[in-house]
Design a protein that fits this description.
Belongs to the XseA family. It is an enzyme of class 3 (hydrolase). It catalyses: Exonucleolytic cleavage in either 5'- to 3'- or 3'- to 5'-direction to yield nucleoside 5'-phosphates. InterPro entries: Exonuc_VII_L, Exonuc_VII_lsu_C, OB-fold_nuc-bd_dom. This protein is α/β, with parallel strands linked by helices and 467 residues long. It folds into four domains: 116 residues, OB fold (Dihydrolipoamide Acetyltransferase, E2P) (Beta Barrel); 148 residues, Cobalamin-binding domain (Rossmann fold); 27 residues; 44 residues, no CATH class. Helices cover 50% and strands 19% of the residues. The chain contains nine helices and 16 strands. The strands form four sheets. It has a five-stranded mixed β-barrel. A five-stranded parallel β-sheet has the order 7-6-8-9-10, with helices on both faces. Helix 4 packs across helix 8. The longest helix has 138 residues.
Length: 467
């Protein structure tokens, strides 16, 4: 349906100009607004930012609008954040902004950001921290990790950190160069410790470590220095819960001297710096080694004292023993010499008697052996004659058997069989011994004395029946 000729028609630019004028008139001044920077959208080539602002309740977005932060304002505000909070403007933080509603004929309605209060952002982090603490306590897990048993000598350490972190390098340097030369085993499990991906990254590493928990004694979460906003990761409830419920003791050294984060509160031990975390582990060894060293020294002192006390007693005992021994030797020397003579005389008498008995026994034995040998020689001669006679008879019998067997084998020789008028039938090189070995149409060979006949089987007959 076409418009009536009397109806006034506007160009799009006129409409957008009217909207722009209306908004400028209605929103002529700046005002403060709270929102979350969902995405900062900073363009380095121009220096401008086009933040996406949202308001969320329980993760659900209630409102969303585009905004603009011009280069000069961005540089000024970003520097304020770095100076006061030690972190730049970034995605995912709540802010209090001084804004003005603006309308652009091309990009539409947007908020023009003039200023951002860093103190508000810091306060929001404190609220998140308090909420996480309250929730952990309500679930009765706030002090759970502190109750985990820490080994007397925690030697095996799983480290969660960034490989390029100075805090990590300081931590392992202190462990590996300790003056007592205590030996530690440590393994790095890399993770993001700040930024939007940090919570998921650390929780994921903790879940992997739980599967190999038997290989470690303690977990150390190590991070370099940073401001309070950069530490917002460690106030996150999910991360704090993962640390509180982890089956091994967790020590933290995330490098700041301000109020503790929730993750530090629930950990087994919290150190201000990575260096102090390493010192905590070394101190465990020192507390064990010092009493041991003192006990060793005490044992040495007691042993030296007892040796000193007993040295004179031992010397006196040795002198007395030597004196008594000499006296006993003198007293028994004459008695031993007398007994020695008696033993020598008795020995000579027994040897002489034994020699005479041995000669008599030798004479009797020689005569008996001579008689036995003569008798045995006669018997052997008779046995020899009998064996010769029986051997000749047996040999003749075996010769006769061999001749008979030889004649039988010769009679069975195929050539002799052929000479008697018989033939040998073969099929495929094998002798035919049954009708079952050939079929009609097979070619067979008949071997005669003077040659071979090849023939083809036309029929097979068994008991007068053809096959």
């Amino acid at each position: 349906m076409a418009p009536d000729k009397t109806v006034k028609i506007f160009r799009l630019s006129q409409v957008t100009a009217s909207i722009q004028a209306t908004i400028q008139k209605r929103y002529s001044s700046h005002f403060w607004v709270t929102a979350e920077i969902n995405r900062l959208n900073h363009y380095s080539h121009s220096g401008h930012c086009y933040p996406e602002l949202v308001e969320k309740v329980n993760g659900k977005i209630l409102a969303e609008i585009r905004s603009v932060l011009w280069k000069d304002d961005f540089v000024r505000i970003n520097q304020q954040f770095i100076t006061q909070l030690q972190t730049p403007l970034k995605d995912g933080i709540k802010v209090l902004m001084l804004v003005k509603v603006a309308f652009n004929p091309i990009s539409g309605i947007q908020l023009q950001i003039k200023d951002i209060d860093p103190v508000f952002t810091l306060g929001d982090l404190e609220r998140e921290k308090n909420e996480s603490v309250a929730k952990l306590k309500s679930e009765k897990i706030f002090d759970l990790n502190k109750s985990r048993p820490l080994p007397l000598l925690p030697k095996r350490i799983a480290i969660i950190s960034a490989q390029t972190s100075k805090g990590y390098s300081d931590f392992i340097k202190i462990l590996d160069t300790n003056p007592h030369r205590f030996t530690f085993f440590h393994m790095l499990f890399p993770a993001y410790l700040q930024g939007d991906r940090s919570v998921d990254s650390i929780v994921s590493v903790l879940q992997k470590l739980e599967k190999v928990k038997d290989h470690f004694d303690v977990v150390a979460i190590i991070r370099g220095g940073g401001g309070d906003v950069g530490l917002s990761t460690f106030n996150n409830f999910e991360l704090a819960k993962a640390i509180a419920t982890f089956p091994l003791p967790v020590i933290t050294g995330i490098g700041h001297a301000t109020n503790d984060t929730v993750s530090e509160m629930v950990s087994y031990y919290n150190a201000i710096t990575p260096t102090q975390s390493a010192g905590f582990l070394i101190k465990r060894f020192e507390e064990f080694s010092v009493p041991v060293e003192e006990a060793v020294k005490k044992i040495q002192r007691e042993a030296e004292l007892k040796l000193s006390r007993n040295k004179e007693l031992i010397r006196q005992s040795v002198g007395a023993l030597q004196s008594k021994t000499k006296t006993a030797v003198r007293r028994n020397s004459e008695s031993l010499m007398s007994e020695q003579k008696q033993i020598a005389q008795a020995t000579r008498f027994h040897i002489r008697s034994a020699y005479e008995r041995l000669q008599s026994f030798q004479e009797r034995t020689s005569a008996a052996f001579s008689q036995r040998i003569s008798a045995t020689a006669g018997n052997l001669s008779k046995i020899s004659e009998v064996l010769k006679s029986k051997s000749l008879v047996t040999l003749n019998e075996q010769i006769i058997k061999l001749n008979t067997t030889e004649n039988q084998l010769r009679a069975l020789d195929p050539e002799n069989v052929l000479q008697r008028g018989y033939s040998i039938t073969k099929h495929n090189g094998s002798a035919v011994s049954s009708l079952k070995n050939v079929m009609s149409g097979d070619t067979i060979e008949s071997i005669l004395l003077d040659g071979t006949i090849k023939s083809k089987v036309t029929e097979k007959i068994t008991d007068g029946r053809k096959h």
